[in-house]
């Protein structure tokens, strides 16, 4: 887990970190997630703050409570999360890229070449994890 920063409410940062773990497969479907007390101890926050982060994930359908047992990653949570993030990615990055390319008269072939070059460059700097 990463450390929290000063960017936004703590409960939202914890929820985002847990969502990242679901998205990248660190915590798989049907697996137990840390309890609010465990999260509170790890992040050194009030248990109510940690519980609120779990409530956010529950409201989003990413985790479900099993009475007396704990919170678990919901069935299909990763797929739903990845689909939503891909839509946001397209809205935030791809659409503006395409609009700007059109303004600059960059055609599809040239745009794909530019993207491939950037991917190759990213693979070199990230050790192949582009």
UniProtKB/TrEMBL annotation:
Q: Which SUPFAM superfamilies match?
A: Winged helix' DNA-binding domain (SSF46785)
Q: Which SMART domains match?
A: HTH_GNTR
Record has DNA-binding as a keyword: yes
- Tell me which Gene3D superfamilies the record gives: Winged helix-like DNA-binding domain superfamily/Winged helix DNA-binding domain
Presence of the UniProt keyword DNA-binding in the record = yes
Q: Which CDD domains match?
A: WHTH_GntR
Domain HTH gntR-type span(s) in chain numbering = 8-76
What are the entry keywords?
Answer: DNA-binding, Transcription, Transcription regulation
Q: Which Pfam families match?
A: GntR
Query: What PANTHER family does UniProt report for this protein, alphabetically?
Result: GNTR-FAMILY TRANSCRIPTIONAL REGULATOR, HTH-TYPE TRANSCRIPTIONAL REPRESSOR YTRA
Q: What's the name of the protein?
A: GntR family transcriptional regulator
The protein's organism comes out as Actinoallomurus acaciae
